[in-house]
Design a protein that fits this description.
The protein is α+β, with helices and mostly antiparallel strands. The chain has one domain: Pnp Oxidase, Chain A, CATH 2.30.110. The protein has six helices and ten strands. The strands form two sheets. Strands 1, 2, 3, 4, 5, 6, 9 and 10 form an eight-stranded antiparallel beta sheet that branches. The chain has a two-stranded antiparallel sheet with strand order 7-8. Strand 2 and strand 3 form a beta hairpin. It is globular, with a radius of gyration of 15 Å.
Length: 176
């Protein structure tokens, strides 16, 4: 069944739950325009500057950071429950060394509004254009967070992506 266009906040609960289980995949393109998927466990959706925004944190050490800096856009894709094991795979191997989409048998689909593709097998996909980015600053971060989330000093850059398009499988809730 074909996916349909939905509003950016229509599946907010399912998206937030996807940060934990079954999983969200951030997809961007590398310098050779090859798609790279990274599992994300942190993120938020909200309204900034009067726009619907998806905020995703990416560590500087990740291959995805290089991709995000080159591409300027990204997609966020919600896995159905039956593919939840792919979140672990995409979160533990690097795109520097693996073609994750090929190895996970995921199908890239051209985005309607961004260069980065969505994933056919996912039940919900957000297409986002980066409108702002900023670095987590060690000196201003709450001490307990710095200790628990950044014990090795591997900080994030936060990417604020304007949500340009959202598509969903009509049977999304049944597949989660």
């Amino acid at each position: 069944m074909a996916k349909t266009t939905v509003g950016p906040m229509e599946y907010l609960t399912e998206t937030v739950n996807g940060l934990r289980d079954p999983g969200l995949l951030l997809v961007s393109l590398d310098r050779n325009r090859r798609p790279n998927a990274m599992t994300i466990g942190w993120g938020s959706i909200g309204v900034y500057w009067g726009l619907s925004i998806f905020v995703v944190p990416v560590r500087f050490s990740r291959y995805t950071y290089e991709c995000m800096e080159k591409t300027g856009d990204f997609t966020v894709n919600l896995l159905p429950r039956r593919l939840a094991d792919l979140a672990a795979f995409c979160g533990t191997v690097s795109g520097r060394d693996h073609d994750k989409l090929v190895e996970a048998k995921l199908t890239a689909v051209a985005g309607a509004h961004v260069k980065s593709p969505t994933l056919e097998e996912c039940v919900l996909s957000y297409e986002c254009r980066v409108v702002h980015a900023n670095e987590v600053e060690s000196d201003t971060l709450f001490r307990d967070l710095k200790r628990s989330c950044y014990p090795r000093g591997d900080f994030h850059k936060l990417y604020f992506g304007q949500i340009l398009n959202v598509v969903a499988d009509p049977n999304l809730r049944r597949k989660l």
